[in-house]
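#struct-queue
[09:14] JT: dropping the first one here, sequence first, then the structure tokens:
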Amino acid sequence: MTVMQQSSAPVWPSTVAEVGALATDLVGVVDRTGILTVLCRRFRNAFGVNSAYAALNVPEASEAVVRSSLGIRTEEFRALQLPHGVGLGGVVAVEGQVRASGDYPSDQGLRHTELLDARVRREGLHAIIAAPLREGGALVGAILAGARFPRNFTDTDLALAASLSDMASVALTSAAKVNSLRERVQELEQTQSRPGLIGNVAARRSALLAHLASDACRDEGCFARRAAAAGISPAAEFCVMAVELPMYATPDAVTRTCEQIIQIGGMALADDGLLLALTPPDGPTVTQVRSAVQGEHHIGPNSAASRPASGAGPLVDALDRARLAVQLLTAVGRRGSHRCSDDVGPLALLAASIDQAVLSTFISRVLGPLEDLEPARQHRLKTTLDAWTDHGGAPKKIARALSLHVNTVYDRLDQLEEVLGPRWSSGPRRLEFETAVHLDRLVNGDSVEPAS
């Protein structure tokens, strides 16, 4: 049996690409079952094996039970019970380390039982790799991939398994927050008929925002009805913002800020360490909301905001991106930073889930040759690489974006080939550079307040 050590996790482009693909697949998936289904598919494909299955802990029974699977043949295996500490999955589900076995039936480094071995034998599995699943920091189970033939798993495989499970854990945590918001919706709806706790208008607007934030009101008809009940035009434009609520943020300051936003026709809700707000385009800016939350403290909160949006779908998407942007800033150790959430996509989930040392190493390895250039040339080529990434490598589009003659663009692309090496812009290396550029922007980009 092979156990992953922290120091044995190399950084490979394939790892980042696979995790990026999982991040893309998970966009919009907000329920636990859906997340596990997507994860099983990606986990199986990543290792080129026959099957994958996810088991969740049942603490009172001291076991993990398979809840989702792909490529499993036998019915008994689809509901397999893994006693804690037994077999590969039973160990990973309680110890929380990535482990692998090249040939499970003959692996004497694991604890076996006759029942479990018989079911593995009938399923025909030999090589198995397993990684822990977490939700909000708590260990909740394991994800496993199995092959019907013996094989060795490398350090790269172990690192990939860890990164994929980290990504899934971020998604599971987000799904739990969505469920919490949906429970908050029910609480807020109950307060609408209980005067003295909160005004009806405030309650309805907070409930509408909670519906949007929990993706329970993406339908335009549902949104129109709820918006009308809250005294809001369904066609109204709002800037969407998420502001971190640090430990020093007092409840009074947060409540006052929410009330002020609601009084000028917006919506505001404090939930799970974030202040979510939809403000009219001429309402308070994110800087003003940050200041209200910050008070006298010398370091402001992390925040993200969008340009004006209207309608259920765009507002739901903007809320998702704003929360993800703040999560990213916190994950990479930023304090008092701001991001325009319009620029945040699925790779932000990747950046927030992978260890920051791993991310930094990957970015430095891919883009490092540009750092050795003299400043003026470095700026020219970095700007060109950014535009190349944004415009699909099309020279004419790059030229328009940079206000250059197309021949100048061709010359700069030739210079990039000299610096980055041949075939940097095609095949696997193209994906590597595109990913590195996007991640570098997310992790190291400047804080900029969006235009309203």
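[09:21] JT: and here's the second one, same format:
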Amino acid sequence: MPAYLAPRGSLAHFGWLAHGLCHQRAYGIRCGRTRPESNISAAGLVSAAGRSGADSSATGSGAADTSRADTNRADTNRTGTNRTGTNQAHRVPRTRIMTDRLPRDLPLDAHMHTDLSHDSDVPIDVYAAGALERGIAEIAITDHVDFEPGAPAYAYSTFADRERMVRDAAERWGPQGVQIRFGVELTYDRAWESDIRTHLARHAYDFTIGSVHNTLASPYRRARIEAFIAGRTLAEIVAPSFDEVAAAARSGLFDAIGHIDWVKRFVYPHVLPAAFEAAPELYEPILEALVESGTALEINTSGLRYPIGVSLPHPAVVDRFHELGGRAVTVGSDAHRADQANWGLDQGYAIAVNAGFSELTFRRGPGAARVAVAIPGA
């Protein structure tokens, strides 16, 4: 039995987790998960007093779209330096739980970003070479497409450029054993739903992820987060994000909905993951919408490498999704850097198996039927 499928609580399972959490001093971390010192209540809420902001990625992942003009406009923030315009000195340290969580011999990583996303710097061949080395049989390139003018990478790359890059790489790497699919991560907002529908009607992708990210007016941006959280309940804090995620799930536009509780990265450390775990009822509308529409739930492993130290969503949510009748899940590393490729993917697979899933759901071509990808050992 693969170590990542060992029963929860077993010695093999704890050994596997410890191996993933306690390794490289090069990243400046100790064994176990680290987070800034704070006063934590039983519900997991942290006092905002003295806090400066959530994770330093609070600009969100909303990226370029080409649906309006399909022109390749330059983006002055391509380096990703201080995109919010806030004072860097006031940020919570960007500590990531980066260790050796690089799995081997798994069939699919369904969420990866190349240098055609505004917040990534990775050439596609780097991902392909890494997948070949680690035995990851198939990857989906899901570069960002955003629909809000003025977003950090609005119109960052054209559909034609993105498709050409992926199709060319697929021809190079397919014969070597790595299948590469042309996917996309579209930023969802109800204000832009008609534009999203138009874009998808005109542009054919192998696989589509719909995700909620920070808009320009988002309350989760660093300059606004403390004032927004103050005096609000958790339900009120997450509502702007969770309501949009539920709407994305109901829309039926996407193959999968990405990182459904992405917001917990941006409210941290003001609100800790424990608060989300203590409020499962907040997830019900999202999960019910996913089940009703047949849209897949993504198990996004990026949270495992950030200070929150948990997947997006956490395992209990995936368990509940299965209980409600959900039968479609995907797993993705949401890599934006070379050292993030496939990171924590085996733990994502384990979460799926422990929830009752024996296969992932994926699409391999425009208009093609969804396919089942068997989880090894499940």
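[09:30] RK: nice, looked through the second one.
[09:31] RK: The longest helix spans residues 234-251.
[09:31] JT: good to know. The longest strand covers residues 179-187.
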